[in-house]
Design brief:
The protein is of the alpha/beta class. 27% of the residues lie in helices and 23% in strands. A nine-stranded mixed β-sheet has the order 10-9-8-7-11-6-12-14-13. β1 and β2 form a beta hairpin. α3 packs parallel to α4. The mean pLDDT is 89.
Amino acid sequence: MTENIAVPASDGRFMARALELARRGLGRTAPNPPVGCVIVRNGEVVGEGFHERAGAPHAEVNALRAAGERARGATVYVTLEPCSHTGRTPPCTDALVAAGVRRVVYAVPDSGDQSGGGAARLEEAGIVTAAGVMAAEAEELLAPFRLAREHGRPLVLYKTAMTLDGKIATRSGQSRWITGEASRALVQRWRDEYDAVAVGVNTVLLDDPLLTARVEGGRTPVKVVFDSVARTAPTARLFEPDALGTEARVIIFCGPDAPAERVAALGERGAEVITLSGSRGRPAIREALAALAERDVHSVLLEGGGTLAWSFLEDCLIDRVAWFIAPKLIGGTGRSPLAGLGVETMDGAFGLEDVESRRVEDDLLITGTIRRGDDR
């Protein structure tokens, strides 16, 4: 029987390490979830592993390989209930049973296990299981995977940066740089951890961004552009390979009025151009997110601009926000982080929960989750 009661304090320490390992797989494992595993024998860590990419061995298998014979009689800490079905790789439960482990502690159950639950398989083999250790932290890590599986769309984080007087650019459109170096470095890390980064065509035209993750050992996310009439130039820098020579994967969502010759030119440049009919000739956001999920994109870092961000928010398709506020003043008619019509009354405002704030050098970062009902 699976334990879900008070567990030794050391279980939390080892699970925290497993979660740390799982984070190394962020942005790399879809359509699988990021998972970490730690194997402990007589209070000593004898093996560690994480799921590195889809199709590669799961976290438990990597940790077992590191532990070798020392896994016999050991306790296994894993952030997600071990799988008991065969997909691209064999069941992790089989590997754990064969290794002779004594106990398996997992943070959260795998609600989508096709075979009915890995814990039951382990218990049939005489292995004690325990659930619920650092469950909230594990669920936060698994949120993109859960959302894609249950609602058919990726999780969306809207990141923006504004001055103290609420502007994201000067009156001439200049936006580099509002925040300091530390804030920009943090955003680069998020790009590495998210499956895709999304912008509107105005950002492409004004800033000509690379949209790469400029961190050591980083990988380039899928680059997504919302471009109603295909104004993105085939010469835009986002088509360029990253510093490691990795070819860019670019997806451009257009509306039905996009000129065929422009669409063809973008396709020839290597972009996947998807035409979707939405309101006012723009591509439908919800359908676009569904298309991304079908392409194994489980998380999107939305970087603007204000009109695109409002379209996402208006359709209740932003899950989290990361709002940088820089100690600068612009004044005048500079643009704000959210455009569109806005809400009519304060009762219609989008509220945040789980709000946190912290300093990033001289900048202030406020994060939170959009409060919503069951409609995702």
